[in-house]
Amino acid sequence: MISPKLLQGFKAKSRQIVPVPTPIADVRAELIALIDDYWRFYCNPNDYSYLETRFDPRSGDAYEVHVPGRWRHAHNIVERRDGMTVISIEWQGRFLPLTRKGDQEIILGVATHEVVEQILAEIKHAVKIGKLDQWLLRELPPPS
After folding, report:
1. What pTM did the predictor assign?
2. Which residues are paired to 49 by β-bridges?
3. How is 107-135 classified by DSSP, letter by letter?
4. Beta-bridge mates of residue 53
């Protein structure tokens, strides 16, 4: 253990680390994994694939199929609409706020690959440090 006098000599401070409850950490990890997964799809849809569980109607047996080149969810995080690039994240049937004002879409006029990557990285960082916890764990307005 380091003494307070030694810390003063180094002009250092100490603080406690508050552990993140496991359910919150799991939700954060799921959302970060979703963004990472979408980024792999966005960068090269031809190299992207996922496993989908299907059921044989005759036997009722479940089997897994590789689905190539298609995003696994109905909502695309990055979409092109009317010449604009729109970024939005649907999470558990609701759209997450992506700005401090609570806006749920980011609309870009000129969206290079690097700009989209930077915005998604900022969103991931906000999730990782807990800035979206209040929205991840409470009721959000339904998508319109």
Report:
1. 0.73
2. 68
3. EESS--HHHHHHHHHHHHHHHHTTTTHHH
4. 64
